[in-house]
Amino acid sequence: MVHQARTDRASGGEPAVPQRTSGQRSARLPRDERRAQLLAAAQEVFVANGYHGAAMDEIAETAHVSKPVLYQHFPSKRELYLALLDSHLTSLTELMLGALSSTTDNDERVQAVMRAYFRFIASDDQAHRLVFESDLINDPDVSSRLETFNRTFADAVARVIAEDTKLPHLEAQLLGRGLAGMAQVSARYWLETDGNLDLDVASDLIYRLAWRGISRFPKET
After folding, report:
1. Distances in Å between the alpha carbon of 143 and those of 46, 131, 146, 183?
2. Is the pLDDT of residue 2 over 50?
3. What CA–CA distance (Å, rounded) separates 183 from 142?
4. Do 202 and 190 form a contact (C-beta atoms < 8 A)?
5. Of 101, 104, 152, 156, which shows the fewest CB atoms inside 10 Å?
6. Are 133 and 198 in a shared domain?
7. Is residue 1 included in any domain, yes or no?
């Protein structure tokens, strides 16, 4: 067995690891994989308990690692939380910008944006709770990250609106913020209906409301 483990290392592979049973710590993983594992465990604990109610002990236990391993990757609970928030905001930004760029038809763009927002809210990992329902919402580092996301998305919407309607940039920005807020608030309310209204039906209702308003702004002749 020792000879086999040495042979595996020499060939660049990892030695075989016995199947972990409940209560045992997980095997050594590459840094990126370990980081992803810790973030997943942290999300589970933060979603269940909120930031203030979460404990690093519980996160380590959920990840099946020792506390020293957890602290090697994330020196504090705050850094762990911010890393998780950054990850979700990056994904959400890519999702929203992808919806905007998915077509050149503005009607379809609004529909795609609304549907993307609703699907993010409906995702099983409950990432939206960390993004929009954080109990650190007034923390400067958290609020600045949320503002960066809101500004990035609203500015992207504003550029589309300004190009199509020829409205001044400041007015287009206000409409962009309004559209983003409509998507966020309506999607979060829809989630409270516990699936009594189909996701596509709900997102299409808000899309039609938004499009009927935006499409009425005059274009330059």
Report:
1. 17, 10, 5, 19
2. no
3. 21
4. yes
5. 104
6. yes
7. no
